[in-house]
Amino acid sequence: MIDAVDKKLIDRLQAGLPITSTPFAAIAAELDLDEAEVIRRMQHLLDGKILSRFGPMYDAVRLGGGLTLAAMAVPENRFDEVTELVNAHPEVAHNYRRDHRLNMWFVLATERPEQIETVLQAIEDETGLSVLDLPKEEEFFLDLRLKA
Amino acid sequence: MNDAPLHLDAVDRALIKATQAGLPLVPRPFELIAERVGLDEQAVMDRLERMQVAGAIRRIAAVPNHYALGYRANGMSVWDVDDQAVDRLGRKVGALAFVSHCYRRPRRLPDWRYNLFAMVHGQSRDEVEDQVGEIASLLGEAAQSHEVLYSTKILKKTGLRLVG
Fold first, then answer.
1. Counting CB atoms within 10 angstroms of each CB, which of A67, A128, B79, B147 has the fewest?
2. pLDDT mean over A59-63
3. How many folded domains does chain A comprise?
4. Domain extent at residue A10
5. Class of the B67-150 domain?
6. How far apart are CA A70 and CA A92, in angstroms?
7. Is A25 near chain B, with CB under 8 Å?
8. Does the predicted TM-score (pTM) go above 0.95?
9. How would you classify the pairing of strands A104-110 and B116-122?
10. Does any CB of chain B come closer than 8 Å to the CB of residue A51?
């Protein structure tokens, strides 16, 4: 369970950490906490998987890499097996099950743009299923902040 | 900011590799990273700052688990919007407070007809349906059809691994 202080901290942490020598002390001062408590609570939130991750949010495309969203229609009786095959690729950053004919949706990030096609082809070969490649063409807003 | 990829040298790449899984939770995280990559703390901060200014780092932040925050209904709403109107309307949809991401993506006919994606999050599917209704009114006749694909399980969420 998370308490009101955790919520305040999660809201603040989604907005971005200052790049200074002691960033957790800076956050602590803003929230009227102490640095050790901020660090302890963050560790707890990460250990409890309330936070998926904490760190720099790199933009694959601005770093010269490739990024796409891919979708597959996976037969129910093969779902776990195909999940393992797809997730085994380190380029797969996120993978979600969705209730649709296209029931597996994953984000692929690669160091070089041309590797997207190679990885998608490998996934098609390994699974025997076809993959829809749906790269973003335009981004209208990106604000992953959810009120805690 | 221009759109050309940022030029990265070997030191930047080492820094990305050392931080892409997350930042250490210690009082001086950049000093610890600096020790690991053989730089000093100021150089690490300068390089991260440069990447952030260039947009290669969006921000240094926490990514919450939607489910754990009580957002039990996470829907990817997908819309078939007139090509002439999609960019103008996409900006409006993206500006809605409850939309966390909004993208234009290619159609893949005949398998996939939707070109606008808007992610919406709520405590329940009813709440998400209300939000989807707001998007529908905003798009009006420019949207031929739409669907909402709810996520039912996180199968993987490690974040990007850009440098191996």
1. A128
2. 87
3. 2
4. 4-47
5. alpha beta
6. 10
7. yes
8. no
9. unpaired
10. yes
